[in-house]
Amino acid sequence: MAGKDISVDEYAKEFHELAGLWPLAADDKLVDVAGGKHFMIACTAKGKVYASGYLFYRAVETIRSNTENDEDYPYELRVPDGWLARRVWACDRYCNAWILAESASEPGKF
After folding, report:
1. Which pLDDT value is given to residue 67?
2. Residue 4 has what pLDDT?
3. Radius of gyration (Cα) for the chain, nearest Å?
4. How many other CB atoms are there within 10 angstroms of residue 66's CB atom?
């Protein structure tokens, strides 16, 4: 159907919520998400950063936190003490990701 805009709803019979996939606190939520080839990075309202993807898991070994030590599950990336993540960006090449963080003690200071 060339030229016709088709909604994703027309392809899906039903949608399902994937509860419990991200290791979020009950009172937190994802507010920004970006991705690259085979990985995804997200930040939460409370300033935490999470990622998924096996190549990215291997690339961020020194800053990741994953109690399961398993590349198949989302894992938290440590942000320096006193900083809260507010936005994330990513690109395919070399598993690059950028995090914009704000000072926890001086809101608005990036």
Report:
1. 66
2. 66
3. 16
4. 17
Please tell me whether residue 63 adopts helix, strand or coil conformation.
Answer: coil
**Which pairing describes strands 96-103 and 83-91: parallel, antiparallel, or unpaired?**
antiparallel
**Of 18-27, 34-43, 77-86, the least confident:** 18-27
Q: Return the SS3 of 38.
A: coil
Tokens 């409370």, located at residue: 46
Mean pLDDT for the stretch of residues 86-104: 89
Using DSSP's 3-state secondary structure scheme, residue 56 falls into helix
Tell me the three state secondary structure of residue 54.
helix
Give the amino acid at 58: R
| Residues forming a β-bridge with 77 | 49, 64
Alpha helices, DSSP H, located in 4-64: 54-59
